[in-house]
Design goal:
This protein has 96 residues and is mainly alpha-helical. It has 3 helices and no strands.
Length: 96
């Protein structure tokens, strides 16, 4: 397996884990009062946007030819950091 394939596989697994985290937070958001729900919904919108951005970067990396994926990796790493940060912030808002 190439380094690119290993990197892509790692990103796919992480995206799956983050999607599960977002689903869990959505379920918890449905159980809170209206005022808190609004704050939770705002965080969920941010999380979904960050996840979609990470998915797009993953797709770019997968479709890249040769060593071009190394340059795209920088953008992918930035997208990953953004979603990690968004999840930390969401968990704070959700009281974790």
């Amino acid at each position: 397996m190439s380094k690119k394939d290993e990197y892509v596989e790692k990103l796919k697994l992480q995206l799956d884990a983050w999607s599960a985290d977002i689903d869990e937070l959505e379920a918890r958001a449905r159980k809170v009062d209206v005022e808190m729900r609004s704050k939770c919904d705002e965080q969920l919108v941010i999380l979904r946007a960050r996840r979609d951005e990470a998915k797009n970067k993953l797709k770019e990396i997968q479709e890249s030819a040769g060593e071009a994926w190394q340059e795209l990796r920088k953008g992918g790493d930035m997208a990953w950091d953004a979603i990690k940060h968004a999840l930390v912030e969401a968990r704070k808002k959700f009281g974790e």
